[in-house]
Amino acid sequence: MAMAFITSYIHQTDGNGSPVSAPNDDVIIRAAQHPDVAPFYRNIRESLPHQEAMLNSTRFLADSGLYYVAEDDGAIVGAAHTGFNADRRWEFRSLWVLDDHQGRHIGTRLTTLAIEHLIRLGRTPIYCEVKEPKMHEILKKLPEDMRRHLEIVPVY
Fold this sequence. Notes:
The chain is α+β, with helices and mostly antiparallel strands. Helices cover 30% and strands 28% of the residues. It has one domain (4-127): 3-Layer(aba) Sandwich (Aminopeptidase).
């Protein structure tokens, strides 16, 4: 079944067939490669000190689902993560955008690309445990044909 909304952010793929969104404000949203993830997490380590060992693990990216990154002038400024939960269902796990890059719709673009990619791969429904009102607002703004694939559970 063709889904028209998938073309809204997934305009092209890289050489490996991973999704890439069209640039907006010179920020590129794309599927992460292993070298992308560790440098980004080093930038946010202060806010997640209890996860330092996990974040520095060389196996973390390969073992934990799909990552998407926002790249601005060669620097990773945001990331989204999807993966399996304990019930072996796909979930949207997390979204981070560095403080000095917030307000530029980077979080919305990361979320949209990640969810569109999971839908395109047939990995639905997508569980979304929402811990912050800001994330809930991002999910509410998604098109209905995308939201119908989500199981949104607010816990804030």
